[in-house]
Amino acid sequence: MKAIVYTGPNTVALFERPKPTIQDPTDAVVRLLHASICGTDLHILKGDVPNIKPGRVLGHEGVGIVEELGSAVHSVQIGDRVLISCMTSCGACRFCQKGIASHCETGGWVLGNHADGTQAEYVRVPHATLSLHSLPEAISSHDALAVSDAFPTGLECGVLSANVQPGGSVVIVGAGPVGMAALLTARLYTPSLIVMVDLDHGRLTTARKLGAHATVDSSAPDAQQQLMGLTDGLGFDSVIEAVGIPATFQLCQEIIGVGGRIANVGVHGTKVDLHLERLWDRNISIHMSLVNATTTPRLLRLVESGALDAGSLVTHHFPCDEANRAFETFQAASQHQALKVAIDF
């Protein structure tokens, strides 16, 4: 099979690899229709996830057709069209029982990390019973792709962790795919103010089209003042950091309101300062987590009903033979007005 392989700092290449086979009774083998590139994949290329070594097939997001099933898997059938969850979970260990599937003792972030991932013509999916979701006919494979990771991450790590409430104020720092997913899912909770912050004017325009009430260019000298002005100087009830660099987390600390919550979604590869000397008496909470993907069935129901436009995030498609072009496009997203970049098989 063809597979997109991490070959070293900032490089990937297309290789021929053996087709995966069932190794455990709980496995499934899925033939990919679409995979996508995540911001985490770019962090891998940058060296921010040093445990991932060259030679790994990347990817933890995808939609495909079930090709083979282990004897213990009865939730899906061969030939079913399925969404592959970004997290695999056994459902039985202490972490799964707590609802923290991202730390499953034999699962979690496996694909594209501890095992070969979805950016290939076939992928072996461990713990398939809880890690594959059958897709209703009403949901296109294209639209489902962003529900593999971006939407559960935006909802769980962003919106729910930031305690977005009806009538509240929300700011999302970072208008990438996960930031946009946080915007779309935040709207479901009817806050009175949603503000998107980014450097990319194209993405800010897209954010306004998707329902942001206001946008702020974070490179503006008075960006912090603009943001505080939108809340009459009170700061935001819910602050979602969706970039993963020190400057954006610093901004989040400056604009949080009394009693508010900061939800960190970004993948941080370098040290970040936490200013407790200014925050200790403001009754705030800071939450950080990996996505558990426990909301995936709920999100699929919202997509099926038309309440959530998941397909709006997938802006570019490339055949797998053009993997380098796909990664280059995502790495230079602002030049190409790209959000989610899909790889088609």
From TrEMBL:
The record's comment on protein family reads:
Belongs to the zinc-containing alcohol dehydrogenase family.
Q: SMART domains this protein is in?
A: PKS_ER
The record's listing under PANTHER family reads: NADP-DEPENDENT ISOPROPANOL DEHYDROGENASE (PTHR42813:SF4), ZINC-TYPE ALCOHOL DEHYDROGENASE-LIKE (PTHR42813)
Q: Does the keyword Transferase apply?
A: no
- Per its record, how is this protein called by name? Enoyl reductase (ER) domain-containing protein
For whether the record's keyword set contains Transmembrane, the answer is: no
Gene Ontology molecular function, alphabetical: oxidoreductase activity; zinc ion binding
Q: Which InterPro entries match?
A: ADH-like_C (IPR013149), ADH-like_N (IPR013154), ADH_Zn_CS (IPR002328), ER (IPR020843), GroES-like_sf (IPR011032), NAD(P)-bd_dom_sf (IPR036291)
Q: Which cofactor does it need?
A: Zn(2+)
Write out the entry's keywords from A to Z: Metal-binding, Oxidoreductase, Zinc
- The protein's organism comes out as Penicillium frequentans
Membrane-crossing ranges are none
| Residue intervals of the Enoyl reductase (ER) domain | 8-343
